[in-house]
Amino acid sequence: MEDELEAIHQALTETGLYVDEGMRKHVSDEEIAQIEANLAEVDAPVHVIAVTLEPKDVWAGSPEELVTRLHDAYGDEGHYFVASHVFDEHFRLTHREYDVPTGDRTERLAWIVDNDTSDVGATLVDLTGILAEGTLAERYEEWSAQVSARSAEMRAEREAEDSGLSPVVTVGGGLLLLVVLWVLVRKAFARRTVQQGAFVLPASAVDRIRDARDRSLQQRARADLLALGEAIDAEEIAEGDDRSAWQSALDHYEAADKILSADPGILDVVGVIVLAGRGHDALAAARSGKPHVPSKPCFLNPLHGAASGNHAVTSGSATITAPLCRACQKALERGSTPEVLDVLEDGKPVHYFESSAEPWASTGYGALETDLVRRLQGGR
User: Is residue 306 within 8 Å of 365, Cβ to Cβ?
Assistant: First the structure.
């Protein structure tokens, strides 16, 4: 570990870029030269690392662990961008920052350029080129407009689905296939049991549906957090505003931003959506001069929004009374299966509240324990 840390640090000190042997086939010599030239034009400290990771290596397959140990060993400040492969699969871009100026938005580069992660070298050239050219603000505006438009489309699709109407989707985005297959698999997947003779989708189709759902939720989380950040930036504390509610809005934004910047799992992504929604509620409370009282989401699926009442819920041998949305209450009252938020754990689908994901499982995303920020700040 010490030898590899020293090699990475030396390369970063000399050129700002480290590319290990496993990534050389993904980043050409020409791209390396361009990345280094771009970094030479950047005033702020930016460190770019391209590595191949494995679950059993000294970093446990975690780019965050690599950067943490690198910073602990040498203490270099600035932005760290890590492009990493695990077993040479589709790569991901991770960002960490240390001692950067307040208001520095360089971390948003990991969002802007992470739209097409099939070409490592081209992505890193694009990332460093934006910094060298000083076009981050322009690129961010373009990206945020695209995300906002996509978020509006997804909201319209969800509203159409909730009302029983067929959503209008584009074939180019792959959404038509997603909607058709999702309608077929939704109830079967939620129940996790299939009666003999029932139609069963192939595992590959279920995987594609789940992947598409996860990508859609990630886009929504980024859009929701972006909207909250812009709303906070646009407001000023006025006489009569409730300062505790303002602080609550900031706390929710910071908690959500920290999660989204740390390569979150899908249940963490849902947590970002919940936190962003609560942040907007806190802003509204601040403007009206009232303290922020977080609403309770639907326990079975926080993506359903605020609960409208309590209902008995049975899971295994346990029964609790939990806040539920009206749709879930109706489903239970007529003996049908509500749409529960499920996740894969050890290769098997489980309800999120039966998973090991914290603090989401034990708090019900705030349905059972409302102070999510405190739980996040106190560690998971």
Answer: no
Half-sphere exposure of 320 (CA within 13 A, CB side): 14
Q: Which residues are within 8 A (CB) of 112 and not within 5 positions of it... i.e. 6 or more apart?
A: 130, 136, 139, 140, 143
- What's the CA gap between 352 and 369, in Å, rounded? 15
The single-letter DSSP state of residue 378 is: T
Banded pLDDT at 62 (limits 50, 70, 90): confident
| Residue in this structure with the two tokens 């079975």, named with its chain if needed | 300
Q: Closest by alpha carbon to 352, among 310, 322, 330?
A: 322
pLDDT tens per residue, range 275-320: 999 998 888 888 888 888 888 999 999 988 888 889 988 877 778 8
**Tens-place pLDDT, residues 191-235:** 443 333 444 444 444 555 566 677 778 888 888 888 888 888 877
Helix (H) or strand (E) segment spanning residue 342:
strand 342-345
Minimal CA–CA distance to 38: which of 48, 27, 52, 28? 48
Residue 377, token pair as written in the block: 């700040």
Tallying the residues shown for the chain, one arrives at: 380
CA 42 to chain centre: 28
Handedness of CA 315, 317, 323, 326 (dihedral sign): positive
Cα distance between residue 42 and residue 116, in whole Å: 24
pTM score > 0.70 for this model?
A: no
